[in-house]
Design brief:
InterPro entries: Glyco_hydro/deAcase_b/a-brl, NODB_dom, Polysacc_deacetylase_ArnD. With about 230 residues, this protein is of the alpha/beta class. It folds into two domains: about 50 residues; about 180 residues, Glycoside hydrolase/deacetylase (TIM Barrel). It is built from ten helices and eight strands. The strands form two sheets. Strands 1, 2, 3, 6, 7 and 8 form a six-stranded parallel sheet that branches. Strands 4-5 form a two-stranded parallel sheet. Strand 1, helix 3 and strand 2 form a beta-alpha-beta unit.
């Protein structure tokens, strides 16, 4: 996680350095003041485009009662989130999975029965992941590439066995535990930074309410919401 965040900072530094180098070059070759100022304004705009990024992620869904409300709030703000689906919760909620895909959210795997993958035999762990991937594929026509291991438990070299990328987090809202919007917000405010992956769940009304507040507050602070794949490939 720290390496990924470091890469984000390096990218910004390189962008600024390249812009300043170009600015100095234009000055050195004697470009006219008008053209130079235009170039300078464009360089400043490029630098300003670089916003801090954050990924909002939700585990354990889909939930028939709360996921629709969450999708509605995300849609109002044009925000794409990452949903790590639990296989046993998919039957009966196929339309919600289709809606997630249609609206541009990332669909990930959260095992079938929410098990600790390093506490069970490897063959059983593989079945837990593959069964959920197959459920998602039957609905969307796409196999998920990312998996959120319950409790962060990831067996050594398991990514090679299931050919998927594990996704952890650096901001744990503990929303399932507190079920309190103020507690959730305190945790987010104290921990969030550029490149953060925020862990939440879409099975509680308080989580939906907190997610709305997180979105509005971080948007106001200049953050850009992205899906986890956009952070991990940067």
């Amino acid at each position: 996680m720290d390496f990924k965040m470091g890469k984000n900072r390096i990218k910004k530094i390189r962008t600024i350095a390249a812009a300043l180098t170009w600015s100095l070059f234009l000055a050195a070759v004697g470009v006219g003041a008008g053209a130079f100022n235009r170039e300078k304004r464009q360089i400043i705009q490029v630098i300003q485009i670089e916003k801090p990024k954050v990924a909002l992620t939700f585990d354990d869904g889909p939930n028939k009662k709360y996921t629709p409300a969450l999708l509605n709030e995300l849609g109002k703000r044009g925000i794409h989130a990452s949903f790590f689906l639990m296989g046993k919760n998919i039957p009966g909620n196929e339309k919600l999975v289709q809606q997630m895909q249609k609206e541009g959210h990332l669909l990930g795997n959260h095992t079938y029965n929410h098990v600790e993958l390093d506490k069970i035999p490897v063959a059983q762990a593989r079945t837990e992941v593959e069964r959920t991937s197959n459920e998602i594929y039957k609905i969307t026509g796409v196999y998920p590439q990312y998996v959120r291991p319950p409790f962060g438990a990831w067996p050594k070299n398991f990514d090679l066995l299931v050919t998927m990328f594990p996704v952890l987090w650096d901001v744990d809202t503990l929303d399932w535990k507190s079920k309190n919007v103020d507690c959730i917000m305190r945790l987010v405010r104290s921990q969030v930074k550029d490149g953060s992956i925020i862990l939440m769940h879409d099975g509680y009304q308080t989580s939906v309410d907190a997610a709305v507040q997180i979105m509005d507050e971080l948007l106001e602070r200049g953050y850009e919401f992205v899906t986890v794949d956009q952070l991990l490939i940067m």
